[in-house]
Amino acid sequence: MYGPPTGGIGAGVLGAGTVGSIFAWGDAGWLLMAFFVLAMATVAAMTLIPRKRAAMRHVGPPRA
Amino acid sequence: MITVLIPAHNEQESIKATVESVKTQTRPANRIIVVTDNCSDDTAAIAAGAGATVIASVGNKGKKAGALNQILSRILKDADDDDIFLVMDADGRVSPDFLAIAAGELADSKNGAVGGVFYGKPDKGGLVEAMQIAEYVRYARQVVRKNEQAYVLTGTATAFTACVLRAVASGRVDGTLPSGPGPYYDERTMTEDSYMTFAVKTLGYQTPSPARCWVSTEVMPTWAMLWRQRRRWQLGALENLRSFGFFTKVTWRYSFKQLIAVCELIFFAAYFTSLGMSLASGTFHVMPFWIAIGGIFWLERIVTARKAGPKAMLIASTMVIELGYSFFLKAVNVYSYYQVIRNREISWSLGPGK
Known about the structure:
The structure holds two protein chains of two kinds. By secondary structure, chain A is an all-alpha fold. In chain A, 38% of the residues lie in helices and 0% in strands. Chain A is built from two helices and no strands. Chain A has helices spanning 28-47, 53-56. Chain B has two domains: 2-219, Alpha-Beta Complex (Spore Coat Polysaccharide Biosynthesis Protein SpsA, Chain A); 253-350, no CATH class. Helix content of chain B is 51%, strand content 11%. Chain B has twelve helices and nine strands. Chain B has helices at residues 15-23, 43-49, 63-75, 98-106, 127-145, 162-174, 192-202, 223-244, 252-281, 288-304, 310-318, 320-342; strands at residues 2-8, 31-36, 53-56, 84-88, 93-94, 113-115, 117-120, 157-161, 214-217. A six-stranded mixed β-sheet of chain B has the order 3-2-1-4-8-6, sandwiched between helices. In chain B, strand 2, helix 2 (43-49) and strand 3 (53-56) form a beta-alpha-beta unit. The longest helix of chain B is centred in the C-terminal third of the chain and has 30 residues, at 252-281. Chain B is globular, with a radius of gyration of 21 Å. The chains are: A mainly alpha, B alpha/beta. The interface between A and B is large, with 46 and 87 residues.
């Protein structure tokens, strides 16, 4: 069996936005990091939007 | 005609429940074959008692892939092209209408295989198990939201048509697919299911994974076992990407995910390094904008774990545990990349395809 390569969308940057002081605007490295975090946050936000309700009803672990 | 193939190596604890889950299908299978592979326990007797046909592998050194190759070589020659073969793990349990739905999907010739959406078996209480169960629920949610297309045709349960299995075998001979030992499943790859996924997709088929085709599977009970499992998955994925080519029309998405994972690693490290530096230098201060961005991730973790139950949501809400689990998975990736660079573990064994 093989699963997704990462622990889930946004997992790697979970919490990265909680400390803004690390971003020294104007520095290319931090700008790149900020861009990445924002892109991942957008993806994370999109996963919160309800979609395909009929199929989604069946998502969930089987009961014992 | 529907045939269920269950390769089993010392699965006496779970094989009965597995066979029972197949026997109670709304669309019954015509044959249930348990392929006992180098068993030293009572798997064969229990499987036979549960009503399955038991066939032992002979001199198999190719593990699960080898056992499947032996049985497929034996029975596929008599199959019609539209006959269905459900290949499932001996510790899995499929949903009651798995076969009915899979058969419906496979009636469409553009679908080459139907993969199950897998879940961890009910929580036994440990944190490592709870984290995997939540992870699987998130993955299932992701699959269903993406038009119910399988990211990977999971080894826990996937149904193929005979013609697709034959096409894979042909592709492995004529160079359309990477070659290696074994006619159908590659016996050298560490993750035969990811190989099969790339193979079926490379042949131009779609791989649906309907939400109602679920399969429950064992989760790793210890961190050490989880480490080994994920290391194998990661190395197997890299191995298969390399053999199929990193940037084909099928594999580029998988390669892109690997790239994103590397970026996450780099930024993850940069984040904590800079956090430590800012705390040490006394320049740390909080900015509301980035607090809000962090809040999105926090909310995403909680909402996507919802179907795993209140416990999973509670764990997600702490953030710290999720971060620790994420660290763990990333550490596996780092170690796997290190091994690839050192070329120690990964076999890079498959010959290149066209």
